[in-house]
């Protein structure tokens, strides 16, 4: 394609340049092309500009400052442990390159703000930075990028603006649709989750809060499923010296070594993936029938694992069990998981034992929603401060010769 077909003129310095997809010349600051703006917060301005300076193309994955008057119909749709999520319409819509018009269309977006708290602004910035870093690769840039940041002038809350996912999170999706989700679909979801996890891990980052509420389900027009990992609030580089004190997260997904006071590692993310694999067999959230309290904590430390349906194909059962191994060194890596699922799904060769399991499931499971949640089963991330108390207790009857801990629940819990 001759560059003469696309004579370009920088709207700032008016010099001509020849790249067909670039709407500004590299010498000029983005703001001179996109207009002057400020978020009113120096750290946020710097973060947005950092993403802009790293990119060269108009439709690349960089953040925009989105004035709140370009957003309308804000409505609450979700609440996690740290933030509130809204749906809204972004009047300008996402950037995409069109040589003649650079046309942008209004689109539905999700807005996420963090609940107020002393450190919430710093956590917000960390979450945006991690989300950006994870998606700043050619593989991930189109999967689930943020569009930009905004601020609600009434509440003063800063907001992440990102694609809205109609099917919501994996936990609620399985709750409603498990009886119709066959293994082909579930293997597609697991493949895409493992694929994304392998990219997070290849960037030496640990998600640290992987669970069904932090995976969003997308279904394409052919009915194929995809799981997007979201909520990078606790995600950190393995190089960061995260001070491990309190344990944060959703109890059933936290690896025993972390519950014992250890650090989150790539292997502790794999443990959480193993819990999700179990849930894919039963359609039930792990330990949904019991309180997520110190008693469950002690049982997990003593080796209790989430239910996995007996009828599960053997190779799948064995892989899930390896992910849940008490010894993190025995767990598979994310690339192994990705290869396992890719061999069964991408090649469209779902092995026959999964088809057989689909047939049997029809007899085993009643139609419709079948989960009964214990009122103290808590699936939003939180500070599990009771883990500290248990670890601080002189674990009276610790068996020195084994990694097992034999604890009774003390009366004062
Ligand atoms: N982009 C999105 N589209 C649709 N729903 C979303 C989106 N992001 C989050 N949600 C919903 O909001 C819930 C909480 O979001 P999350 O980012 O996990 O917040 P928290 O940090 O508080 O856990 C999710 O479990 C999901 O149901
Ligand atoms: Mg969450």
Automatic annotation (TrEMBL):
The UniProt keyword set, sorted, is: ATP-binding, Nucleotide-binding
Against Pfam families, the record matches this protein to: PK_Tyr_Ser-Thr
GO terms, molecular function: ATP binding; protein serine/threonine kinase activity
Keyword Nucleotide-binding: yes or no? yes
Q: Which InterPro entries match?
A: Kinase-like_dom_sf, Prot_kinase_dom, Ser-Thr/Tyr_kinase_cat_dom, Ser/Thr_Kinases-Pseudokinases
Q: Which PROSITE patterns match?
A: PROTEIN_KINASE_DOM
Q: Which residues form the Protein kinase domain?
A: 71-346
Q: Does the keyword ATP-binding apply?
A: yes
Source organism, top-level taxon: Eukaryota
What is the name listed in the Swiss-Prot or TrEMBL entry for this protein?
2363_t:CDS:1
This protein's species is Funneliformis mosseae (Endomycorrhizal fungus)
């Amino acid at each position: 394609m001759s560059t003469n077909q696309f004579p370009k003129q920088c709207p700032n310095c008016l010099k001509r340049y020849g790249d067909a997809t670039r709407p500004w010349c590299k010498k000029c600051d983005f703001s001179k092309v996109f207009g002057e703006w400020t978020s009113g917060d120096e750290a946020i301005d710097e973060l947005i500009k950092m993403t802009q300076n790293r990119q060269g193309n108009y439709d690349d994955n960089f953040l925009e400052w989105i004035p709140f008057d370009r957003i309308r119909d804000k409505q609450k749709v979700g609440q996690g442990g740290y933030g509130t999520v809204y749906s809204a319409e972004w009047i300008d819509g996402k950037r995409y390159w069109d040589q003649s018009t650079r046309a942008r269309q209004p689109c539905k977006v999700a807005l996420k703000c963090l609940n107020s708290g002393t450190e919430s602004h710093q956590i917000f910035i960390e979450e945006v930075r991690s989300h950006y870093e994870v998606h700043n690769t050619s593989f991930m840039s189109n999967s689930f990028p943020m569009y930009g940041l905004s601020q609600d002038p009434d509440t003063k809350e800063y907001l992440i603006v990102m694609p809205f996912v109609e099917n919501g999170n994996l936990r609620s999706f399985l709750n409603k649709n498990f009886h119709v989700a066959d293994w082909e679909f579930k293997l597609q979801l697991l493949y895409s989750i493992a694929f994304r996890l392998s990219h997070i891990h290849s960037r030496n980052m640990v998600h640290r809060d992987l669970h069904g509420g932090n995976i969003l389900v997308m279904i394409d027009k052919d009915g194929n499923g995809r799981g997007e990992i979201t909520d990078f609030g606790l995600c950190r580089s393995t190089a960061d010296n995260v001070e491990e004190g309190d344990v944060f997260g959703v109890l059933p997904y936290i690896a025993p070594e972390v519950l014992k006071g250890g650090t989150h590692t790539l292997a502790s993310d794999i443990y959480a993936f193993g819990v999700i694999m179990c849930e894919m067999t039963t359609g039930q959230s792990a330990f949904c029938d019991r309180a997520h309290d110190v008693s469950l904590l002690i049982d997990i430390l003593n080796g209790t694992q989430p239910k996995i349906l007996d009828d599960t194909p053997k190779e799948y059962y064995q892989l899930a069990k390896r992910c849940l191994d008490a010894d993190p060194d025995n767990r598979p890596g994310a690339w192994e998981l990705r290869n396992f699922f890719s061999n069964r799904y991408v090649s469209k060769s779902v092995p026959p034992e999964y088809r057989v399991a689909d047939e049997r499931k029809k007899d085993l499971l009643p139609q419709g929603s079948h989960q009964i949640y214990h009122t103290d089963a808590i699936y939003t991330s939180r500070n599990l401060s009771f883990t500290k108390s248990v670890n601080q207790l002189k674990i009276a009857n610790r068996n020195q010769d084994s990694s097992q801990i034999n604890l009774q629940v003390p009366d004062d819990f």
